[in-house]
Amino acid sequence: MADSARYHREKFHRYILEAQKFDSGFVSLPNRYVDPYSGSRSYEKINLKGTGTILSYTIIHIASDQFAHTTPFPVAIIETDEGARLTVMVTDCDINDVKIGARVELVFRKIMEEGESGIINYGYKAILI
Amino acid sequence: MVGIVGYGAYVPAHRIKSSTIAEQWGSDPAAIERGLLLSEKTVPGQDEDTITISVAAAKNALKRARIDPKKIGAVYIGSESHPYAVKPSGTILIDALGIGPHVHVADYEFACKAGSEAMYVAYSHVKSGEMEYALGIGADTSQGAPGDALEYSASAGGAAFIFGKTNVVAEVLFTHSYTSDTPDFWRREYQRYPRHGGRFTGEPAYFRHILGASRAILEKSGMKASDFAFAVFHMPNGKFPLKVGKTLGFTNQQMEQGWVVNIMGNTYSGSSPTGLTAILDIAKPGDKIFMCSFGSGAGSDAFIFQVTDKILEVQDLAPKTRDILNGKKIYLSYGKYAAYRKKILFND
Amino acid sequence: MREVAIIGVGMTKFGELWEQSIRDMFAEAALKAMDDAGVKKIDSFYVGAMSSGLYTYQEHLSSLMADYMGQIGVPGLHVESACASGGSAVRAAFIEVASGMSDIVLAGGVEKMWDVEDGTIVLATASDQEYEAYNGVTFPGLYAMMARVYMEKYGLTREELAQVPIKNHKHSVNNPNAQYPFEISLNDVLKSSMVADPLRLMDCSPITDGAAALILCPLERAKEFTNKPVKIRGVGAATGPIALHDHRDLTRLDAVKLAGERAYRMAGLSPSDISFVEVHDCFSIAEIIVAEELGFFEYGTAGKAIAEGQGTYGGKVVINPSGGLKAKGHPVGATGAAQVIEAYYQLTGKAGARQVPNAKFGMTQNMGGSGGSCIVHILEAL
Lengths: 129, 348, 382
Prior knowledge:
heterotrimer, A: 5-stranded antiparallel sheet, 8 strands, 9% helix, C: alpha/beta, Peroxisomal Thiolase, Chain A, domain 1, 12 strands, globular
């Protein structure tokens, strides 16, 4: 659960996939001051196209409270075509269709609601293409 | 020339069949399908709402418009299911699409015509020269009380239109609005489901306002029904739009492409706008399109469009509306549907 | 740097300790350890706990625990490194004694997990809150994604994976402090509820209340307190990416490899010297990957080797003689300290029916998150 300030801070990463491409080639979606692998601090801002490939996945049957009404649901680690790694929920699919190597596209969805009266959290999920 | 430079639609993948709802309430499925001409409707996924639907539709509109989102000077989302009672839907959409922050944003509500209202104002801004582009959206995750006739129709989806002056794909030739205070359908604050006046929603509401707006715009334009390649009306069920169109002299052939209600349901603010996108998907240069919305309370916005040569360049740039409707479908049981639509009480 | 020994240990029973609070549990373990070592006053202490704040709304454990274990006045520090908090506390105490700063230092850990209804959300704070937990993944889900790739890459079968908890439960039968000291069958594992496909309930360590504590002192002073001190011969620690998706290879835990290499180097030993290892089997797949990263088996072979008996008595190395996290229980902040206690029991001949025969060197491996941190200790019987 994210309160307003914490949610707001990450919005461009979650809404329009704002990322950084370091001159080493490393691509990070979360903001970073330094590439943890090469030590490079030189990067350009990019927006990920939103397509990628599933590297691994699971079907969550026991979820934390805020996702408890949506089980079972798939979660995958994907690598975007730019090379960024993301953990994402896979939505609008038959859970049996989720496979390693499957191609996905990121879509803008509601992630969770902070209760009946709190803010609504949006972000990216993957759909199979 | 001022008109649509990009358009797009989106409907969720989830569906419920009219027969599933009829069986839940002990109604005759065949009678429902025959009476309302509804075979199934879209249902928002648990992770979808008016904002996510608007974003998906507007993304498709941007793909067709091929413009820098920063050039959009106004964004209006019309809906009767804005996720927040206080806090705009449009602000989330602009940040999700890279529009703004130098942009005028407002959320509209006028029952089922909030979408055409958004289109009307967006168009007017461009026409006035106030801005280069403006985006109008109609989207809803419509509410219908369990067991109510609305439950068969209330569905989810939306359509988005970017208006501009260059590379217009469908010029707006005329507009006309017709409005009166008519309490045919309403939802009070803090209420989950709308209420309606039963048969009062028909003659004195839907038909009077659509006929009023449509006859006036035809007179204003000097056109007649046979001048149009296509016509689309607000679709609260399958029957009403066909009946009102026929009264105005339109044929089923002119109406069938925009008549998506039988497989989509009534997407409230998104209804006739989504029908319009289905028409634009197949329209040819020179075609004239007649559109008239209806929103309870009540009012109608009528538009006359003329398709330009540019339409052929953009039709394939984003998914076509009937392809989305006939694409991935995930059918729900009534129990799942009830949970998805929060018709089941959970603990905090 | 001075050499360091363990001179006394104490722990609570692991389980659902409804009548004991976080302070009760830690005080019980600490007092037992002090009694065991025969010390009345300590010079300093470290308490590992992953999330006393979220679990019990209690922070400031340095003051609380000093107060309730009767040591007001001594310096204390709460150490946190998710599920590696306990191991980190032992390492911190080791450093303090080795440096010459203090002589008698208590290291321990505690977690009160049963006071909250939804512990999943607390454990998820050990992952990347904004970019993993936000997107719905749970800890079992993260390890399930490791298991998925491992099984596909190396052909590990679901039945072979099940042999890890089966073995650990078998070991736990002889551990009086274990939470679930009973044997389980293959069917029990394969028919247990799905938690995060392919991991089932019996692949997952339980929710546990418990505390564990040890007393460390300079080796040169150990004989003042006990005839059977255990020497901490090697310590290795490392960090890895916070998010599993940033592991370049999802079948590897680089932090474990680094921590292991550092511990072996400091100890001047290699895997073949180790008789038993307490590993962080938070999920069945973790034990397999960890056993490979620590050098006991080649990559891709530990699952089959454990299934063939190479991880139990008479095999290559006894893995988790205590029953491991799965059967002994996993009070997250206490686990790393409890692992070292098991090594102490084994190396002092106090392990009873689960005694590993002729053990000279033992190892413990404690891990935070999905491999975001790791602490390895190598211990020596004197």
